[in-house]
Amino acid sequence: MVRDPAPSEESPSLQTVLEALDDADCRAILRETTEPMTANELSDTCDIPTSTLYRKLELLSEAALVRERVAINPGGGRTTRYVRDFDDVTISMDDGEFDVAVERPARGADERLADIWSKMGDEL
């Protein structure tokens, strides 16, 4: 299972973001996740083996570049979809130190509620 990304008000470390963006498979996943996709859909679309895909999703999650959307199925079980979770990534240098800032898309009330529901489901 992919871990929750860093909270929206926190930026991930520069090293973590650079590692994710330096990976060709991660970049392919980011290109495809403008709309939520399941791991199987991403595996097929990006031509990445499922076991590798989950490692790449973990890397992207640690960099707070993708997030999980979990939906409860009416017949039971859950479906997890992954979606790109940034509008812009900026790397800057100030006083000789590099910094990274991740600009996030605005989330509607329904998405915030879905995030809360997903976290509650993880606790059960």
From TrEMBL:
SUPFAM superfamilies: Winged helix' DNA-binding domain (SSF46785)
Superkingdom: Archaea
Pfam family, one: HTH_20
InterPro entries in alphabetical order: ArsR-like_HTH, WH-like_DNA-bd_sf, WH_DNA-bd_sf
Matches recorded under Gene3D superfamilies: Winged helix-like DNA-binding domain superfamily/Winged helix DNA-binding domain
Protein name (Swiss-Prot/TrEMBL): ArsR family transcriptional regulator
